[in-house]
Amino acid sequence: MTQRHLPGQPHQLPRHNTPMSGYKPEHFLLNVEAGVATVSLNRPERKNPLSFDSYAELRGFFRALAYAPDIHAVVITGEGGNFCSGGDVHEIIGPLTTLDMPGLLAFTRMTGDLVKAMRACPQPIIAAIDGVGAGAGAILAMASDLRYGSARSKTYFLFNKVGLAGCDMGACALLPRIIGQGRASELLYTGRGLGAEEAERWGFYNRVYTPESVLGEAQAQAICMATNDFHRAYHAFVAKQTPVFEGD
Q1: How many C-alpha atoms does 135 have within 13 Å on its Cβ side?
Q2: Most exposed of 125, 183, 198, 212 (fewest Cβ within 10 Å)?
Q3: How many structural domains comprise the chain?
Q4: Where are the alpha helices (DSSP H) in 16-80?
Q5: Taking 70 as the threshold, does the pLDDT of residue 204 lie above it?
């Protein structure tokens, strides 16, 4: 078996060694290969909307990655040609209209906790975005460290179109940091779509690829982030040598 890291001192901290490669999620797909966990939202018939259960399970998953020695990078994507259409209208939006204020507060805290769990995740997260990324789907993309989009993808911050504030799930805090205050204000005030070419030009996307290649490119980048080359760079720096990267 190929050693994933150069020799070092093993840690013995309690509760800091919980492998996730064998985890079987109920509300999304998970594939772990070469230290890269690919999370796939898997409700393609409805453009991969989120439910109460998927919110909670994703939150727990990203929190658990802090203790997962076998996961070194994460790719999040959607099945069936779309990324994520946001909160499910029938499973989330409808039930929310019947909740009292404590219930609404509990839900908004859960959605915010998912964003915080992703931002606190020690592994780099790359979003591979094809098709629609709307509402909470756009937030999942923003909570990632890198965003690779397909040429046909489109991002929508639809909160104001359904009577919600543009600050939902931290949008008004995250989006200006990525594309600037003026551009963020336009998208959050109007709810208009952001196409792939414009998204790359504005800095929302790091790269744009074909629909067929966007996931593979994201996974390839994630593999690069999960190699021993980081260790080689450090040891070469200490020895005042030029690092020799091997890509393993």
Answers
A1: 22
A2: 212
A3: 1
A4: 52-64
A5: yes
